[in-house]
Design goal:
The structure is a homodimer. Chain A is α/β, with parallel strands linked by helices. Chain A contains 12 helices and 8 strands. The first copy, chain A, has a single domain (4-295), classed as Aldolase class I (TIM Barrel, Alpha-Beta Barrel), CATH 3.20.20. The longest helix of chain A has 16 residues, at 113-128. The N and C termini of chain A lie far apart (44 Å).
Chain lengths: 306, 306
Amino acid sequence: MAIKIQEVGPRDGLQNERTLLSTEQKLELIHRLVEAGLRFIEAASFVRPEAVPQMADADAVFRGLRRRDGIVYAGLALNRRGVERALQADVDEIHLSLGVTESFNRTNQGTSPEDNFQAFLAALADVRGSGDRRRPVTITFSVAFGCPFEGAVDEGRVVEWVRRAAEAGFDEIILADTIGVADPRHVGRLVRRSREATEGRVPIGVHLHNTRNTGLANAYAALENGATTFDASVGGLGGCPFAPNATGNIATEDLVYMFERMGVATGVDLDALIDVARWAEKIVGHPLEGMVMKAGPFRPLGARRP
Amino acid sequence: MAIKIQEVGPRDGLQNERTLLSTEQKLELIHRLVEAGLRFIEAASFVRPEAVPQMADADAVFRGLRRRDGIVYAGLALNRRGVERALQADVDEIHLSLGVTESFNRTNQGTSPEDNFQAFLAALADVRGSGDRRRPVTITFSVAFGCPFEGAVDEGRVVEWVRRAAEAGFDEIILADTIGVADPRHVGRLVRRSREATEGRVPIGVHLHNTRNTGLANAYAALENGATTFDASVGGLGGCPFAPNATGNIATEDLVYMFERMGVATGVDLDALIDVARWAEKIVGHPLEGMVMKAGPFRPLGARRP
């Protein structure tokens, strides 16, 4: 089964960096990622600039893109207004995100999960009716493996959201470990149950953070249980090895390294991606968490006969 | 199935640290680890002090131990002379290690794998004949997943070593990813094949390094395929997030965190172990790679109703 690596560094990564990048730097990051072979890029989010200053130039980022055929430049939105802006920016794909717990969604998105979902249904209809070309709409269920306020999240509750999203016609469903507390058995189980609930009709993906070092274990468990989309951010942007509250995404190049070693083709040029990670580290001005960017891929020295 | 976590920080961890710890510091580390609930400690290696200055005081470490009932204090040896010293030091368990490739074993241990194995068979007989009490003897096959000189290592070749070791009567067999290049499918496969080759009669374990971020993914794959022993070092001792050539073991507290979240009992007090990791970081004087020691375990804030 073909897998899809979705680069979210320009969005989720940068959103959690203190350093404010210029629009030009963001564009350079995106263009470098595409050069390295990434085909799915979440380029920005269309949210209120007061809430997320790092994404204030989302429209300018999309205007400045040197688009390439076959590359999907996606934008994230949390409400109907965001979707409107995303459509105006001519995104190729719209990503929606919903917290599965009442406390998290209210804190993060100012409304209940149910009301938010109803707004997403309206937004989905808006996109479907917008005419000119088909733009896939995906939905991410955040805090699906644990909520910072409520703790454990019932699996059945998440599966029910997945079932409803599939029924509503979303093109892809992503389970997010927003705060990095998932374990691989949990991830494997929830991916499997989500696939069962949707009878394999909708691609299931995962969005993982490496906060407690389980990121790649969780990605592996997701893969072996049928997930096909994997969010990741180059270098693990958004996290720093010494900042206790930094919760970087899994590093794209570490994921690519692991997948390729396992025999899973990614289409990414690992050496080129490592170069992008090292460049990104300089731009944000602090060490990133990716490990393959430090250790390098496996290159034997050649047999030595002492 | 009960699993066993074997703390190798005082041996493999410290051996790869530049900071030379005093015997007292090493003893304090070991005693703190036991306090935190670790029951299996690889406390030192009996190797030539010229080759590994960090282990020059192995005999003194064993003399200084405040031993506790039920705790296994093990010592590593690479040849028959080392085993003799380990017996004199009254270790509870003897660990032997053999590189499965010609180049690696010659470089690391100055002899061919075959000659080394023959010496180990003699050492095994020495231990069995030493009388007073039964001391288990385990064997680790290093570079089992990849060799820095020869690159890929044939799986059948490793399985054949495992079969021979089981036949010879070793009490436990550990597959080591010495240079951190294993991927989880490889680990799962080799553990499964090793169990088949030994018909489940000898416990199979893994010794993993997190050099390229795949450490916990590999541990998870090993577990799901029947491995029961897991080497790890507190804080990921032996590695530093910024040193490209540092190849720390997987961090014990990260492994304990993942296992406990998965429902696998470890018997370790995670909070106490995190304290030991933070203490160890101060002692060695540089940041360690463990992540749970920075992020902390998962502690929900309690439901918030904004």
